[in-house]
Structure to design on (303 residues):
């Protein structure tokens, strides 16, 4: 879990993913020589802070967003949400502005005003994120930003043995998206790949508990094509990897831009469930993480 712990501590809210991008490019360049297949790496000009890895003759793409939720400093100590973070008085926030490093506390009042408490004024426009507090037991890992550093971590584990496929590290997912629109266009037009797996983290609910395996989502606010999801479930059944089926009416992911694109993409959201969503205390069961990696490896081979 050392790599996951490192990534959960990286400051990369939507719109300011560059630190995560730099970390991933460094990690990929250092470790790819040990991978089964050497990928072609697309980044930089034309890709903003996103990264695409292409292995062999790809048929399926994994999408994992690298950004997180957070807050933007406004005026008079006000904070504006980046995405949908939970807001509780006392949450610790960190960041950096022109005057140096910041370690402050969030204050949330009965009028739904969100402010920060700090010894000085913070530069307007500064992005703040939850202060990382890594906790690990025999069964669980817990920290801020399991969503979606765990989805990114999963994609990196799959990359180690991937023969044919694409891994996409996208941006802005937590705050409306925007990058997948041009990433899917590049992938479809260059490689004719049109099926995707969304490597992201879902919620623990009354129907999806910890410890029952990785979650295959039948729907959230969007509805994937049933025949594609049925194909995935059939492969999962034969694999003997523990999995659960999820049905939700809200929530979304990078899949939104795939479904709304001009190209005929199929997609399915597959990820481990977490408790304390969008808070500093996101908690995931280790066996569910293991099942997530195992199922992705099987699917990328069979799809």
């Amino acid at each position: 879990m050392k790599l996951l712990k490192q990534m959960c501590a990286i400051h990369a809210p939507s719109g300011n993913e560059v630190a995560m991008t730099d970390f991933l490019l460094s990690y990929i360049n250092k470790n790819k020589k040990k991978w089964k297949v050497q990928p072609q790496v697309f980044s930089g000009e034309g890709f903003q802070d996103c990264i695409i890895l292409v292995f062999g003759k790809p048929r399926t793409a994994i999408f994992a967003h690298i950004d997180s939720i957070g807050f933007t400093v406004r005026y008079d100590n006000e904070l504006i949400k980046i995405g949908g973070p939970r807001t509780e008085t006392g949450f610790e926030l960190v960041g950096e502005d022109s005057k140096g490093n910041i370690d402050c506390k969030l204050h949330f009042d009965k009028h739904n005003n969100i402010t920060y408490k700090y010894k000085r004024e913070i530069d307007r426009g500064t992005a703040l994120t939850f202060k990382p507090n890594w906790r690990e037991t025999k069964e669980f890992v817990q920290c801020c930003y399991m969503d979606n550093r765990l989805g990114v971590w999963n994609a990196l584990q799959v990359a180690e043995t991937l023969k044919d496929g694409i891994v996409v590290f996208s941006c802005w997912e937590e705050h409306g998206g925007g990058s997948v629109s041009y990433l899917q266009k590049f992938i479809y037009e260059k490689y004719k790949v049109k099926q995707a797996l969304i490597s992201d983290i879902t919620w623990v609910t009354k129907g999806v508990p910890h410890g029952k395996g990785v979650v295959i989502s039948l729907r959230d606010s969007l509805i994937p094509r049933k025949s594609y999801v049925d194909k995935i479930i059939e492969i999962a059944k034969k694999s003997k990897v523990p999995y659960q089926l999820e049905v939700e009416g809200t929530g979304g992911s990078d899949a939104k831009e795939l479904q709304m694109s001009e190209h005929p993409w199929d997609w399915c959201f597959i990820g481990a469930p977490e408790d304390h969503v969008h808070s500093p205390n996101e908690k995931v069961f280790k066996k569910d993480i293991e099942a997530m990696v195992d199922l992705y490896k099987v699917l990328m081979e069979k799809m």
In short: The chain has seven helices and 19 strands. The chain has two domains: 2-68+135-302, 70-130. Helices lie at 2-8, 18-31, 146-159, 180-191, 226-239, 255-259, 286-302.
